[in-house]
Structure formats: structure tokens, C-alpha cells
Amino acid sequence: MSASTILAAPLAGWCVPLSEVPDPVFAERMAGDGVAIDPTAGVLHAPCDGEIVAMKDAKHAVTVRSASGVDVLMHVGIDTVELKGAGFEMLVAAGQRVRSGQPLLRFDLDLLARRARSLLTPIVLASPGAVVRRSENRAVAVGDFLMEIAAAEGPPATTETQVVASRAFRVPFEHGLHVRPAAQIAAALRPFASVVEIAALGRKANARSPVAMMSLGVHSGDTIEVSARGADALAAIAALEPLLAPVKAPVSSAARGEAKREAPATTRGELRQRIEASIASRGLAIGPAVRWTQPEIAVAERGSDESGEAAALARALATVQSHLEAQAGAARGEQRALLEAHVQLIRDPDLAERSRDGMRRGKSAAFAWRQATRAIIEGLAAVGDDRMRERAADLRDLENQVVRALSGEPPGGTRELPEGAILLADEVLPSQMIAIERSRVAGICSARGGPTSHMAILAAASGIPALVAAGSAILAIADGTMLALDAEHGWLDVDPPAPQRAALQRAVAQRAAERASDIEAARRPSRTRDGVTIGVNANLGSLAEARTALECGAEGCGLLRTEFLFLDRSEPPDEDEQARDYQAIATALDGRPVSIRTMDIGGDKPIAYLPMPHEDNPALGMRGVRASLAQPELLRTQLRAVLRVEPAGQCRVLLPMVTDLADFRAVRAILGECVAERGLAAAPALGVMIETPASALLAEQLAAEADFLSIGTNDLSQYALAVDRGHPQLAPRLDALHPAVLRLIALVADAGRAKHKTVSVCGALGSDVDALPILVGLGIHEISATCAMIPRLKRMARLLDAGECRELARRALDQASAAAVRELAAVARARARAPSTDSVSGG
Ligand code: PEP
Ligand code: MG
Question: From ligand 2's centre to the CA of 601, what distance in Å?
Fold first, then answer.
């Protein structure tokens, strides 16, 4: 049985539970378990015999270490770090031995009463151990019994393989590594077993000890090196990323990394090169480089005779088309949808006409076809929209396939790959993606391309980690070079040192196991620990995604982006075609609810078949429901198609970009006419997307008339924060966890509650695991997310406690920036990952 340490009250005053301290760092015991005292006199005394522990630059807090190794942190008042020592007089020095009851610190009670957020003074156990008895809710005099501490058990024996990893971070906190961030770091590490240390300014500190970290004297902007040793070392370091700012090595410069299996932390290796890139499909991979190049086939410009060339082109097109159809017949999901789209594309009349025109001018079939596809690619590039630009890869793919067919080469044709290869390519074309053997490819990195390209979609659908837009440097990497592809952070490490390879391999295995168990549990409903059901739907843009959604555990479709169903075409879809597509998706979802959003055209989603007059500011122009009301026949066609879907009632209608009731009522009137036309007994549920600050502010009016509300956080943040959602430099500012956006969401959630209407979140915030606790806390009990995130979101929901989430949300609303909210959210996530461990000392 371990010995215990008795602590005496260091202050006279009223003793309260820590949970009453108005600071989550203490209230949630991140800094350690203990009690708080509301002082009635301005002198802090030693709670036991011991030694003063150095706490750099801290004039408002003192730590005493007892002979038994118990660290007692006493933090006078809340937010007193801001006073920078004003009103405090330290009576002891670091390293000094003190006796229980000895005065340690004098403070000006009146000044603190005026300037500090609270006088409540937490007294917490900042070293391992447990509070087994404590005084609470009573007056105490200096020297009265305060707490009994039981010593910690020894560290568990290490049986697992050791991984050693390290990472440099820049300290982003305004006051450096003071109590609050140090406690947050310690709390974030709680779910992990590894030994974690922080090195800075030539010293090292245990990253589980806020006191030790504070003693480093680290200031805002300083670089610290975090090293972890243990089976979950990588995950432990990753858990700190949301709190600290990772120091990224510049492109192509040497970066130091280390990771070691069964080796001391001092073993270091050098990375030859780190190349940053955009993430197309999340995940980690390690393997040998294989360059996946495709030399352009040379073609003669001049043709023989026009009719001979035209016949050759027709034959080549037919060959490629039947190859695509055969592949589509054998494919599933995203692959099938893509191949079907390519069949449409190859029959495109505009492409045919342009090619004929070339042959009429004496060009060869191959030359004319290439010219025709490239003219369209250039047109897409000029649109200025990434999604459109990325369709260029589909056209380049068809260009190649047809030119190959014209040169007499067989369609398809795959290359033998070594096991676990990381493919490097200028651009990976969709047909190459389809042709590769998933089991042989560990990861993909392309010099060009974008995160919404079909390659990215296919890679994500097959679970292949992928990076895009890495630049042409990757094409100089020799075949066989070992690569570590990190599509969680967005970089490719060339020839990483052996220890890093080993660590990454373990991380890859761990991710795969986690994902497998998430998917296995995904079909079950998700309920928080205190029994609140969180509905998780899918955001869909294709039939293929609908099939994937079910595999991922979606309970319905909260947002069908219908404009995505009809992208690559020059004619608007008619009623029959739309009815067929909606029916197919409804059938695939097997009776689950489907929210069909009317076409959200305009703004960042221009559509070729619906040319719009030039607008100086299209985001604020004719988009969403405004465009639909300006062309009511298109809207009617779409509503009629929705009304044809069986069974009636499975589909609901959702309106994008609503400003106020006038928009809603205008569509409701048209929907009413369509319902009457078909002689239906009831209209489908009609919902409103809350994407403009106006609609959020008027949510209560909208909730009174609409059947449901769905918050589109992508646009809502763009408009609330005045940041163009496609602006590359301003992208970091566009965070929907900004307190301004959260306050709008809170208004909408309250309005839904008041009018008994469901409010869901379908923007990207709904797919953000860190945002989920805050959304739940705001009263959002339904989200619609991208399919791949659904299993993880459901796991997260099961780890939450709605009561705790409410408290978290309340605090989030009071933060001053999105970064501050993310700090809170990261801690909440770290705690949620291991609720049972976190609550052990909860008292
Ligand atoms: C949104 O704006 O959050 C939303 C879901 O709509 P989209 O991203 O399609 O504009
Ligand atoms: Mg939107």
C-alpha cells in the first residue's frame, strides 16, 4: 500500500470543487485534480513541507514539491497571467526548502478582485497520484486539512515494441507555455501511454506535467521539440498538432525526423527531402517509388483523305467506347459512375463536331481529335473553378485512349508494379486509377491535379492515400527510392531514415485497424453516452456515392447536390432523366430519407448548359434559389421529377441560398402547383438551407414555415466571415468553427428547438470530427457528412456526453477566434478518445 501525503489549506477562504472554477483547464482537471479556494486574505502559504519548484516567469502561481514527490500547484486567481506580476510579491525562490504553513506569495486581493477574471485559486495535484479525500464547500483557515494524496502506482511494465518519434512545433500561445496550454498539452496526452518529453532552450520537461513544462520558460513563437517513446508515440505526437503549430520544413529543404523501433531517443536520421502537396485522399503509406509516366504519343498532323480519317476516328471511338462499357459493366461504385460518364463524354456531339472540323481542314484523325479535346480543356481552365478545371483530366484521359486506339495499341494496358508501390505521376488519369491493382499500390502522388479531381475521388473510394499538386520535383525521384507519403499532413518524405520508416509502418497498421473497426460499427445507430441519438446522414453527388454511403453506415442522405449529377454536359437534364436518377438514388438508399437539394447553380458552380450573364461578384449574385426562381421552368421540371420518385415521402426538397421567407414561399407556391398537377394528396417536406447570415438571423421565422432546416456551413462561413470560399490565401481564415459562425448556428439550433423542427448541419463542418462535440452541445442532433467520414463521426458521437458538450459549446461561443475554439475542441477530442481513463480521477 502506498503512503499518502496530507495537504493543509494554503489560504484562508471558502473551499469549492474544482468544477466551479471558471476555466476549463482547472474545471475539467486538465491541470490536475484538487480543489479551489476563494481567498479572504492575500497570503499564500505552503501546504506541506517541501521545495519550491522553478516556474519560469510565473509570479501568480507557486508549486511545492513534497519529500514524497507530490507536486502541488497553486494558481492564484484565474487569468492572472495577464497581470504580468502586478499585485504579486513572491516571498520564496526556486529551489528553496519551505515548511508547511510558511508564507510563499503575497497578493493584492483588491487589485485582483478588480482585474482578474476570478479570485478562485485552484490547488491541484500536478504530479502522478490521486486525491483520495478533500475538503469542499466549507470555510477553511490556513493549515486546516485540505486534501489527502495517495502516491501513484509505478509505471506499467513495457511489453510492447517501442517507437520513438519526435516533432518540432512552434508555440502559438500568447503567453508562452503557461499553465493553461501546458495543462491542455498534458490533457491531450492522457489517452496515450508513451513517455512524452518537451525539449526547449537546452532543457527537457515531462509533457504530462504542466509544472515541468512551465519551468522551461518557453515564450510564444519559440520552437519546442516533442519526443515520444512507446507503442503509441506517433499518435501521441499527432494529438498535439491541433494545439501546437507544427514547424513545416520548406519545400525541398532537409528536414529532421526521427522514429526508432526499440532504440534510444537519441538515434537520429536525416530526411533527404520533404515535398509538400495537397491532400487528395487521406492516409499514410510507405513504399518504393514507381514513376507512372505516359509519354505523349506522337501523331502526324496531316491526314490522308477526309473520309478515311473520319472512318478511322469512328472505329477508334467505337473501340474505346465498347472497352469503357465493358469496364463499367464489371465495375462498382465510383468507378462505375465514372466509366459511365466517360461513355457519355466520348459520344459528346461537340467533341465530334470539332474533330470533323479538323479533318475537314486536312488534319489526321488523331491530330483533329487531340485538338478538339484540348480546345475544350482550355475552355474549362478559363472557367476559373477548380471542380471544372479538374474535369480536364477526364478529357485528357479520353484523348489518350482514342489516340492509342488510332495508333493500333490495345485499350487499357497495365504495367507490372512492385508490391506496395508509391506511384509518382505528372497526373494520374482516371483510366489509370481504374486499371491499377489496389493491392499493389500503397499510395499515389501526382505533380499536378487537384483535391476534387476524379483521381482523388477514386483514390478515396479505394482507400488509397493520395497527394496531388506536389510539383514536378517528384518526377525526378528515381524508381525504387523509399518514400513516406503522409496524406494526413500533406507531404512526401524522400528516403526517410529507417527509424521513421518503422514508425510509419506501425501507424499505417494502426490506422487500418481503427478504420476496420469503425466500419464494422458504422451500421449501428450512434447514441451519446447519456443516450442522445445523433443522426448521421451522407452528402451525395452521385449514385455511386449513395451505394458507398450505405456501406459507411449513413442513415439517409441529408444533402443530394443535384447539380453534380448533371455536370459534364451541354443540355439541361429533362424531367425523365432527373426522375430516373433520383429514383436510382432513393432505391439505392432503400427507403431511407433523401433530401434532394434543388440545383445550386451559379456562384462557384457555373454550369455549361445554363450560361449566366457575367456578374462582377457571382457569390453575391444569381445563385441557388435565386437562379431557380429566375428560371422557374427549370425548377418546375426538377420538382416534377422529385414528385415522381417512389415511395412518395422518401424524398424531401431542400432549397439552397435562401435569404428570407419570400424565397421559401415562392418555391412552396410552385411546389404546390406541381403537387396539384400530379393529383398528389400531400407535398413532400420542404426544407431551407441556412447558408446566409440573413437566413440564420431569421431562422425562427423560417422554422415556423419550413419543414426542416439544414445549415450549409461552407457558404454560411463564407458570408459571415467575408472570405471567398475559393480564395487560396484566405483559406486559413475560413474556419466554420469561428465563434461568429457558431453563434449563427446557435441561433438556428434554438429556432429549430422553439418551433420543433429538425436542424441538421450539412456543410463541411458536419464532417469535422472536432466540431461534432460543439455542434451536439449547440443542440444539433443530426449531421450530413461526406461518406468517408461517417464511420469516424459515429464513433465520436458514441464517445460524447451531451451534457459535457453543452458546456463545451457554451465556452466555444465565448472564444475570440476560430483557433481558440479549435484548441478547446482538440482537448475535448483527446478526452473523448478515452473516456474511461479520463474519468478515473474524476472524484
Ligand atoms: C454549404 O454551403 O455548406 C453547402 C452544404 O452547400 P455547397 O457546399 O454545395 O455550396
Ligand atoms: Mg452552399
Answer: 10
